[in-house]
Structure formats: structure tokens, C-alpha cells
Amino acid sequence: MTSYSDSGVNLAAADATVDRIRPAVVATWGDKVIGGFGGFAAGLRLPGGYTEPVLMMSTDGVGTKAEITRRTGNVDGLGWDRVAMCIDDLVAAGGCPIAMSDYIAIGEIDTELITRIVESVAAACTEADVALLGGEIAEHPGVMEPDAFDVAGTALGIVEVSKTIDGSRITVGDVIIGIDSPNLRSNGFSLIRKLIADHTSLDATFPGTDRTVAEVVLEPSVLYSPAVLKLIDTIDVNGLCHVTGGGLVGNVPRILPGHTDAVIETGSWTTPHVFDVFAGWSGADRLDLHATWNMGVGFIAVVSPDDVETAISTLALHGRTGAAIGIVTPGSGELTLT
After folding, report:
1. Dihedral Cα 25, 27, 30, 31, nearest 10 deg
2. pLDDT greater than 70 at residue 3
3. Count of alpha carbons within 13 Å of 129, Cβ hemisphere only?
4. Span 37-58, average pLDDT
5. Can you tell me the distance from the alpha carbon of 264 to that of 261, in angstroms, rounded to the nearest whole number?
6. What is the distance between the alpha carbons of residues 278 and 192, in angstroms, rounded to a whole number?
7. Mind giving me the DSSP string for 111-158?
8. Is the Cβ–Cβ distance between 222 and 215 less than 8 Å?
9. Taking phi first (over 0 means left), then psi (-120 to 50 degrees means alpha), and beta for anything else, what does residue 269 get?
10. CA-based, 20 to 30 A from 133: which of 108, 155, 200, 202?
């Protein structure tokens, strides 16, 4: 007889892992969640105060940053990357994130590793006031190497239909506010890994610092949602953009009306040191760099000139630095970097 365990699936380890992650997951629930941990699905009470609520969903992963965490064993920030990539997409459309589910595929169940990942997801959800409803741990023996894993998540948000933000209110003369990104977040890591292999190693000292390369590149993503939601509550925001894969070049045009252009002055903010180092190793030109990494601007808000000062002060009150970095001009939906 050949059993399921003979194929490499360890159901006992899976059950033990679920027991280990239970406290971290349930701690994000409060009284919002209906159902018990370990069920087939969980329910969520929708917040009150909406007349015509619209539900929004977003799904994303963390890309090949996960491979560096696998090689180093430093997975404790990975949950922040996963949560940020999902919920910050929601808030870019005006949505308030309310719940997440997560997915981990792994070659062989490692209870300690998975627990650390899920605990980091739960910590990020707690900061963003998001319920981690549940997820899936999938063991893939014979398909993935035993220590290989990948992670992804899905976020649920809610917004009043009249308060969705899709860029259609952007007008000529609006000001583009860049919101700081102190690190790489979770994008462009295929190039990051190649540059590390070509120029250094993960355990070497990162140039200009007393930290290792791994410590620098694995800094977790910041969460923009809490500060941006406060901004939306304070002023009329005409457009929002989450600067992820594709950088400013790939993301800003997605929110521009067809009769406008965005002109951004790349010298109007201080680029964090990590980008300068990798830019030097890559030898890429400015356009290519801004089409690969966020280069220090991880989120954008487009506002009326009269609201610029309030926007920047509101962001600062909620832990994020913002600055005017550009303007909306007549055009055809394109971005110009100066």
C-alpha cells in the first residue's frame, strides 16, 4: 500500500502548523469576524455608515524577494510586504481595507518558518486594522524543493460608491504629492538578485553602512493605507497611485485622464542610499531606474494646489513624509520625468 504520506505530504505537520498560527490570526479579529478558526470560510461584519457600499478586492504576492528570505532565513518582514502590496492597492482606489486571506505554497511543511511568516502578516494586519480571516498552506512535494516557498494574499476593502478614486477628477494644474519610500519594498527583486550575484553577496557589508546586504534589501514594506485613508478623510483627493512594479513610469499613467500629462521633477526628493547603490551597479539610465524601482516614492496623491499644505501636514501627522514633486499639465496621458 502507498499512502498519502509516502508521496511526501505531512498532514500531522500541517495540523501542528495550523495550531501554532491560531493565536496570531485570531488576534486580528476583534468582534468583526463571524465563524471559528479552522472552518472552511469566515464571515465579516461590514462597517456601518455606508449608503451605497462597494466591495473591492486585490490580490498580490511579494515576488522574488521571497527567494532572498528563503536563502537567509529572515522571513520576519515578509508579512508586511504581502499585506502592503494588497491593501495599498485598495486604498489607491479609495477603498478602506477590512480583511485579508493569505496563501503559502511550500515544498515541505516547516512549522517554525510558516509560523513566523503568518505572525508577521498578522502584525501588519493589526497595524492596518485589517482582520486576517484565514488562508491556505499548501505542501507541494515533488513539485517544489523542500525549502522553497511562495506567498500571496488577497485583500477585501469597502468604499462608498461616490467616494471611489479612479483619477477621473484629476485636472490640469493639480499638484502631485510624492509619499516617501525608505526602502525597496517588494519590487524589482529579479534585478536586485542579479546585481547582488554580480557585485557582492548577501552576507557582505552593504556599501556605506554597517549592515549586511541581506539586512538592507529585506527591510519590510511600509504601509501607506493608514496615512492615505486619513488624507482622504481630510481633503478631496483627485487621484492616488501605488508605485509598485514598473515604478513611476509604469504606474502614474494608469490614473491620468487622457487629456492630461504628469510632469515629475526627480530632484525634488532625496533618493534613499539603497537605490543609489543599486543604480550604480546596474548602470541603467534614469528612465529605466524609474521603470524598475520606486526610487524613494512609494505612493502618490494628486490634489488641488490649495490642498498641498494640508495634504503634507496630514501625512506627517500619520507617520509619512510627503512633498510636492510634480504637476499635472495638458497632454495625452503620459508621464515626463525632468
Report:
1. 60
2. no
3. 11
4. 87
5. 10
6. 7
7. HHHHHHHHHHHHHHHHHHT-EEEEEEEEE-BTTB-TT-EEEEEEEEEE
8. no
9. beta
10. 108
Q: How confident is the model at residue 32 (pLDDT cuts 50, 70, 90)?
A: confident
Element (H, E) at 176: strand 175-180
- The three-state secondary structure class of 165 is coil
CB 316 within 8 A of CB 308: no
Count CB atoms within 10 A of the CB of residue 115: 19
Helix (H, G, I), strand (E, B) or coil at 82: helix
Angle CA 97–103–106, to nearest 5: 155
Give buried/exposed letters for 13-46 (b at 16+ CB in 10 A, else e). Answer: bbeebbebbeebbeebbeebbeeebeeeebebee
Q: How confident is the model at residue 120 (pLDDT cuts 50, 70, 90)?
A: very high
Tell me which residue of 203, 219, 232 sits closest to 303, measured CA to CA: 232
Q: Tell me the average pLDDT of the chain.
A: 93
Q: Closest Cα to residue 228, out of 95, 38, 54? A: 95
